Amino acid sequence: EVQLVESGGGLVQPGGSLKLSCAASGFSFSGSAIHWVRQASGKGLEWVGRIRSKANSVATTYAASMKGRFTFSRDDSKNTAYLQMSSLKTEDTAIYYCIRHNDFWSGYPLADWGQGTLVTVSS
Amino acid sequence: QSVLTQPASVSGSPGQSITISCTGTTSDIGAYNYVSWYQLHPGKAPKLIVYGVGDRPSGVSNRFSGSKSGNTASLTISGLQTEDEADYYCSSYTRNDTWVFGGGTKVTVL
């Protein structure tokens, strides 16, 4: 069974940093891309970006609004992906989801989602 | 502002059919048949209900169907049931190798 478990969310002050983790099991993590999507309270889903597998040079792509502040990484030995967020703003307050994706077919859907972790940016 | 445009709300009575539209551009919906639809119930993770424009994952009711014409995709829910009351989001892969979502549609069962 595919499982994705996000952790690391919490309360952080504006301008602060936070690192989220996404622990995966039940599939070939090293061969998969991992996407991040967020949802602010009362708002819609927003694609944050993607980190590809080693076979695709661990390439990263970010949504324009997050480029420069968010950084993806992965540790295939731990089956874990990470989202490092810095210079956080109140508008970054949201539930952050990680999602498994087939790294060799862009048309593959974002089918397997974690339960999400809540990040609150507030003073 | 979301990249894909969806109506804010759609409603219907039990047993009726409703359709949710999702309008994009030639750079996303119009470029590929890589449109997905997600169902969100409060407090739960998004659930994929349609992908590849009109395919359904195993276990998803055939009351959900998808289609596309030009830059607009549509999700139809037939035989509306109370448990279908949820938020629905469309998503598309884009020519920029990114993914975009719609603003979401709240479905109310009257």
Features:
heterodimer; A: 123 residues; mainly beta; seven-stranded mixed sheet; four-stranded antiparallel sheet; 11 strands; 0% helix; 50% strand; B: 110 residues; six-stranded mixed sheet; three-stranded antiparallel sheet; 9 strands
Report a brief summary of the structure.
The complex is a heterodimer of chains A (123) and B (110). With 123 residues, chain A is an all-beta fold.
Can you give a write-up of this model?
The complex is a heterodimer of chains A (123) and B (110). In chain A, the strands form two sheets. In chain A, strands 2, 4, 5, 6, 9, 10 and 11 form a seven-stranded mixed β-sheet that branches. The model of chain A has no long low-confidence stretch (mean pLDDT 95). With 123 residues, chain A is mostly beta strands. Chain A is built from no helices and eleven strands. Chain A is globular, with a radius of gyration of 14 Å. By secondary structure, chain B is an all-beta fold. Chain B is globular, with a radius of gyration of 13 Å. Chain B has strands at residues 9-12, 18-23, 35-40, 47-50, 64-69, 72-77, 86-93, 99-101, 105-109. The A-B interface holds A 35, 37, 44-47, 49-50, 61, 63, 97, 106-107, 109-111, 113-116 and B 2, 32-34, 36, 38, 40, 45-46, 48, 51-52, 57, 89, 91, 93, 97-104.
